[in-house]
Amino acid sequence: MNARTPLGLLLLDAKRVPFWLYVPNLIGYVRVAALIIAMLQSDPGSALAVRMLFLSLALDFIDGPLARKLNMCTQFGDLLDHVCDHVTMCYCVYITTNSNVNNVLNFVHMVVTLGYMAYYGHYFKHSADGNMVTRAIEANNYFNMPALLWNANTCIIPLVKLSYSVEHGLSRFATTELLDILDVLGCAVTIGYTVAVLLPESPAKASKDKLAGASSLLAGASDKIRVE
Fold first, then answer.
1. In degrees rounded to 5, what are phi and psi of residue 227?
2. Looking at the domain assignment, is residue 175 inside a domain?
3. What is the 3-state secondary structure (H, E, C) of 24-43?
4. What is the pTM (predicted TM-score) of this model?
5. What DSSP letter does each residue of 55-84 carry, written as one string?
6. Which of 40, 104, 110, 112 could in theory staple to 90 by disulfide, Cβ–Cβ 3.0 to 4.6 A?
7. Dist CA 95 CA 112 (whole Å)
8. Is residue 187 part of a domain?
9. 85-94: string of b/e by CB count within 10 Å (b at 16+)?
10. Domain residues for 43?
11. Confidence of residue 208 (pLDDT cuts 50, 70, 90)
């Protein structure tokens, strides 16, 4: 590497740094650290915990676009991003809901998500095909009504409750009729999404998805070898 190249510029060059030092992945590490800090707080509703959770979720809107802009999309980054997403969402629900059903559904959804990624090597939306439910939720890169309800259940409502807890001293479990209605609708989407991704795939599709995941891994390894 050219020692005279500024570190900031070097980190923006996908061909000259190992994938684990790609800028989007560095952001992913910050997200994980923020989540861990939040989870280690004795009071999950403390100002620090809430700020760390918000930081982790807010950075999710940055890492993906940066990865595409800088040509730094990797299998590792995809998995890092979505593992952090789903652990954060499950934790947010856990610390803000009185509903055992809501807790169980989101925990199952997280387990299914992690299991899916461990088996196929990528997130749901990168599948070759899909079904009616997954396509509806993933349409327009998750900017649609079903996905909005899903995010309301897993992120928006928990953050609203936590913000009122910090700013106005309310219980982090406090709710309203409107929030409960949105939560139920979001739970329905969460159930549908969980079941939809569990539906068995055709052997051809499963092989194609695994091959795609393996190819991404080999590409990342090749990049690392070239850099080193």
1. -65, -45
2. yes
3. HHHHHHHHHHHHHHHHHCCC
4. 0.82
5. HHHHTHHHHHHHHHHTT---HHHHHHHHHH
6. 110
7. 20
8. yes
9. bbbbbbbbbb
10. 7-227
11. low
